[in-house]
């Protein structure tokens, strides 16, 4: 698979960007870290794919949905793949399958969000039909279902090694669900804008969410304290909707608590969790809205976009200053 390089100047030197052919011609809807340098991406082209961005190799593309694939995730324990779609169906795949090994039908509208528990035995899905469904992956059946009026679900994150499921929605609420009962166990003060993304920290003490908005109104990330059900701080600087957010593991940040966001303003930002200071920012020219992001074990960030596929960034500290720079696109 051919590619080309371009260069641009960053503090401390020149950065070369490896530009591989795009894996999707339509907008990217989600990205997911499979392993170092291997990224799963879903698209409005009705497919999802797995790409090795270090070697420029498209490892697999899965076809099977009749509409946009809204999210795709990988089970590191089960080595299975899961895809959600506007066709209202969730498909389960293995790496070599041409057709789904299972199909999970139960939502009445577009399935917008997926997340797995730690051992990959259970899957939770969310939809614009206001419902969360808990699935037994092995049996391929729904175990629990719960709906809340006007709760059009935008994103879900099942915290590792726990029964906590974070969920955001178009009703502007952030909820924590108990996976054992699929009932809401915790709510927070309602935000002013639709919440688009959520992630629970590895220590399960905090939840990070991102907001819709425009012209700098809204457009923030919010850090919530799960022990007190309140806001710790907000991270403001983006000018348009913040489509993706994630914690950066302390092993990649020299022990400093950092988080990252991406926005429809074409920028990726890294923030100091303690001070809310933006410590690094990089733009993706011509990208259109940045829709989603994933962090990799080697301090790479992958960011999905409307117009330029997936962009990969490296985060480094040079002379006491954090530097974020693009290293690849595909």
UniProtKB/TrEMBL annotation:
WD repeats lie at residues 62-103, 104-145, 153-187, 235-281. PROSITE patterns: WD_REPEATS_1, WD_REPEATS_2, WD_REPEATS_REGION. Keywords: Repeat, WD repeat. The keyword Repeat applies. Gene3D superfamilies: YVTN repeat-like/Quinoprotein amine dehydrogenase. Pfam families: WD40. It comes from the Eukaryota. PANTHER family: SPERMATID WD-REPEAT PROTEIN, WD REPEAT-CONTAINING PROTEIN 31. This is Uncharacterized protein. It comes from Capitella teleta.
